[in-house]
Amino acid sequence: MSDRPEPPTPTPEATGPDPAASGAPAVVAPQPQQPEQGRQGLLELALRELQERRAELLGEIAQLEDRREQIRQEINSSFAGQSDAIARRLKGFQEYLVGALQDLAAAAEQMELVVQPMVVQPSPLDQRPVAETEGAVAATGAPAAAGLFSGDADLIRERLERFGGQPDFYADPWKLRRTLEPSAAARLDDWFLSQGGRGAQPSGGSRSRNALAAAAAIAVLGELYGERFQTLVLASQPERLGEWRRGLQDCLGLSRDDFGPASGIVLFERPDALIERADRLEERGELPFIVIDAAEQVIEIPILQFPLWLAFAPGPGEIEAEADLY
Length: 326
Fold this sequence. Notes:
- There is one protein chain.
- The chain is an alpha/beta fold.
- It has 2 domains: 43-105; 150-325, Rossmann fold.
- 55% of the residues lie in helices and 8% in strands.
- It has helices at residues 12-15, 19-22, 35-80, 83-110, 124-140, 153-163, 182-194, 207-225, 238-252, 271-283, 318-325; strands at residues 198-202, 229-234, 265-268, 287-292, 308-313.
- A 5-stranded parallel beta sheet has the order 1-5-4-2-3, with helices on both faces.
- β2, α9 and β3 (265-268) form a beta-alpha-beta unit.
- α8 (207-225) packs across α9.
- The chain is rod-shaped.
């Protein structure tokens, strides 16, 4: 045996009552929740929200891009895309305005701004002096107007004779390019040298022949007066004026630009407009040459006051044939 004392045996008072022995339920200490599982759930929730927000933003961006493309197309179609069409419309409108202004200027040139003078019949007391005056003129030989071209008789006859030869199709503008018939040359000789450029001559039977005779007169007057005279043609219907324009254009080698208020030949449907134009030419020191169509049955008295006018007198049946055509 050893002398070491044995440890004391614990008594029930020292160790405390035994729960199992006493029959009381056992108390289990709570276990702490794992932090990793909670953090994972939060991350998944935040990720879903970000994905949803991203999808919404992508949708809005797509809509904005579509709207931007639509606006770009509208801008292109409204400005750059239609620039050519707008330019063409502006060009057409400009041409319309220019044509309208030209027509307005032509209409203003043809407006009747001067009151027609009143023609008074002479009284019986004045007839005797007038008869005496006419007898004095007849005694002297020819009227004073007949001497207008007396100094140029040789030139006029030489030109009329040359016009009867071979036609010069390549002559310069305002020169006769067609052959003048001998009968027409004889009428022009009488008109220049006997009538002094003022009077009526028999019609050639058609408007084209009359246009050829007038073209020959214009060619001679062009050599005598240069650009100081202008031809005024009177015909009461547009169709007749069209025939005059084509005939003179062919015989003199002209273009459409040579027919107009500011050009060499002006076409008139009304005598009052022609008279107004002739007055303005004389005020500027120029010489009007008036050509009257054979279909004009009446010649206005103021036309007879101008120094140069040629009226074509229709032949038998020519007026009736003209009426059948129009």
